[in-house]
Amino acid sequence: MSDIRDFEICNASLVLEDRVVTGGVVVRDGRITEVTEGTSRSGFDLEGDYLIPGLVELHTDHLEVHYAPRPGVRWDTIAAIQAHDGQVATAGITTVFDCLRMGADDEHFQPGEMRTLADALHEGRDQGRFRADHLIHLRCEVSAPDMLSDYETFRGDPLVHLVSVMDHAPGQRQFQNLDQYTLYYQKKLGLSDEAFAAFVAAQQEASARHSGPNRQIVADDCRARGIALASHDDATIDHVAESAGHGVRIAEFPTTLDAARASHAAGISVLMGAPNIVRGRSHSGNIAAGDLAAVGVLDVLSSDYVPISLIHAPFVLADRVAGVDLPQAIAMVTATPARSVGLMDRGRIAEGLRADLVRVQRQEGVPVVRTVWREGRRVA
């Protein structure tokens, strides 16, 4: 990683919030001090390649792939984060919210493992190991009886900037259709029909007992501490009304058009998966993100489980969806997610902001990330 934080860029296709123009930027001490328009011979010549803000990733489970690459296998925590970090940075992601699970689930993570990962994130940041700026997103499974005990270990952690509340019990939200739940869980867990029926009943009972109280406790805590709160898999107007009452800022993966429209109308940013855009459909059978974009209710994209999708999806949107131009699509992975969590120092190419920048080349098909700067330092 380069320590040079003062430089100039010229002859780029600058993707600003409202237009694409030929121009450049001047960077001093890691900040953008000037945005210029027109051709120039001063600085690093991008030869017409796009220059976009560094991508802001709010929801990725990808760290788990490196930490737990096989059932029962745990990788060195620092090495796992570095592997994850390298992949997100070379995809143009300069700010990443790493999801950590609160509450037991079928993945069999042991108590304390998420805190161990968080401690490694702190250690790696302090040692300057990472290319991207890593923050923490706590994914709270509110139906789990042990969720609050996990959550308590993160009180006061300065890296926690986003918390989401979710309930994956069958028969509602993401799994309104039990056929999809059966396909996802019974095969994954290797359960007989009888054992799976008992599993479903236990999940539904836990949801009925714990979901409401836990959701309220987490919402109250986030409000008191000024932490951005997200809902997950809202499916109905009542779900959205509950989220609005809790002060939710981001609606992650609403499963119906009605829920997405209601969230957007309430000023809650609607977040969908970039893989959904690239593939043209949801992997779980819910609404397609492109359909939400087409009616103007898609605000934020997340790479979710494929880091490179975050740079790919905006170009797909701009190509395929009428009414969505490239600046609007790029804002879904830069300015809007940054604003949604209160990070006002990044996400746009504008004077005074962090020089988190990405050079992108695209003639056709999948875009190529050529260069990545974070706070003026070249990191990829």
What's the arrangement of secondary structure elements?
Layout: E1 7-15, E2 20-28, E3 31-37, E4 44-45, E5 50-53, E6 55-60, H1 62-67, H2 77-90, E7 93-102, H3 113-126, E8 133-141, H4 147-152, E9 160-166, H5 178-189, H6 193-225, E10 228-232, H7 237-245, E11 250-252, H8 257-265, E12 269-273, H9 274-279, H10 289-294, E13 300-302, H11 309-320, H12 326-331, H13 335-340, E14 357-361, E15 368-374, E16 377-378
Parallel strand pairs: 1-4, 1-5, 6-7, 7-8, 8-9, 9-10, 10-11, 11-12, 12-13
Antiparallel strand pairs: 1-2, 2-3, 5-14, 14-15, 15-16
Helix pairs in contact: 2-3, 7-8
What is the β-strand count? 16
Task: Name the poorly predicted regions.
Answer: none
* CATH homologous superfamily title of the largest domain: Metal-dependent hydrolases
Q: Which class do the helix and strand fractions yield?
A: alpha/beta
Walkthrough of the structure:
With 380 residues, the protein is α/β, with parallel strands linked by helices. The chain has two domains: 1-53 and 346-380, Urease, subunit C, domain 1; 55-344, TIM Barrel (Alpha-Beta Barrel). Helices cover 37% and strands 24% of the residues. It contains 13 helices and 16 strands. The protein has helices spanning 62-67, 77-90, 113-126, 147-152, 178-189, 193-225, 237-245, 257-265, 274-279, 289-294, 309-320, 326-331, 335-340; strands at residues 7-15, 20-28, 31-37, 44-45, 50-53, 55-60, 93-102, 133-141, 160-166, 228-232, 250-252, 269-273, 300-302, 357-361, 368-374, 377-378. The strands form two sheets. Strands 1, 2, 3, 4, 5, 14, 15 and 16 form an eight-stranded mixed sheet that branches. Strand 11 (250-252), helix 8 and strand 12 (269-273) form a beta-alpha-beta unit. Helix 7 runs parallel beside helix 8 (257-265). The chain is globular and about 70 Å long. The termini are close together. The relative contact order is 0.16. The model has no long low-confidence stretch (mean pLDDT 91).
